[in-house]
Amino acid sequence: MPVVKIKDRRQWTVDCRPLTQEKVTKILEILEKLHAVPTPKLNFETPFQLLIACILSAQCTDTLVNRITQNLFKKYPNPQDFLQLTQEALEKEIRSCNYYRTKARHILATCQILVEKFQGKVPQDRETLMQLPGVGRKCANVVLAFSMGAETIPVDTHVFRVANRLGLAKGRDPLETEEDLMKNLPKEKWVMAHPWLIDHGRRICKAQKPKCEICDLKAYCDYYAKTLKTG
């Protein structure tokens, strides 16, 4: 996961009202209502395909990754198929993706490890997944949550920003934010909170110029109360 650089801490986390269970429940209810039909996410059929899509998604939109993988996964559905490719050949397949050379190298190295050590299967624990080239904690959590049914909360830049602005977390980095969310949210909501917070960050709670004036959550938002409503 890329390091999150904070230029203005007020955009991320503020000391405001205490977090209550009532507030958590209300925020989750509103998020679910607003984002019950999420924006496009990564397309996949197997844990392996989601793993590859996650590696490709770094610094790249889900929409672009889905365009790449639509044909890529038809040709190469499993690790053994990818290992038939040279580095150069895979680069050509994913060329429209940012950092395609690095990602091609990571994908081929990951496939080699999966075949040699795991019989072509994707490991089912976070620590082992994070040892694969190109796989960070967020990517590992996404694979575990959405292809294996594990109860995790993947934290990307959107989740980090929105959760801290709302006051659902007060983390200084993605790991602290993940820990806060796991402590503050009901366990049965962990997985779905991820796409809800991402959608809210993309549509409303943007990094620059958040649309607070039209946000249904502003009555519960620490950022709004601290920096806008009172200022």
Walk me through this protein's architecture.
The chain has 231 residues and is mostly helical. It folds into two domains: 106 residues, Endonuclease Iii, domain 2 (Orthogonal Bundle); 101 residues, Endonuclease III, domain 1 (Orthogonal Bundle). Helix content is 55%, strand content 0%. The protein contains twelve helices and no strands. The radius of gyration is 19 Å and the shape is elongated.
SSE layout and pairings?
Blueprint: H1 21-34, H2 47-57, H3 62-75, H4 79-82, H5 87-93, H6 100-118, H7 126-129, H8 137-147, H9 157-166, H10 174-184, H11 190-203, H12 222-229
* Overall morphology: elongated
H and E order: HHHHHHHHHHHH
Quantity of strands, as a count: 0
Distance between the termini: 34 Å
Class inferred from helices and paired strands: mainly alpha
Number of continuous helical runs: 12
CATH architecture descriptor text of the largest domain: Orthogonal Bundle
CATH class annotation of the largest domain: Mainly Alpha
Beta content: under 5%
Helical coverage, percent range: 40-55%
Q: What composes the largest sheet?
A: none
CATH topology of the largest domain: Endonuclease Iii, domain 2
Mean pLDDT: 90
Question: CATH superfamily of the largest domain, please?
Answer: Helix-hairpin-Helix base-excision DNA repair enzymes (C-terminal)
The domain count comes to: 2
C-alpha-based Rg, rounded: 19 Å
Pick out the low-confidence regions: 1-15
Task: Please provide a brief summary of the model.
This protein is an all-alpha fold.
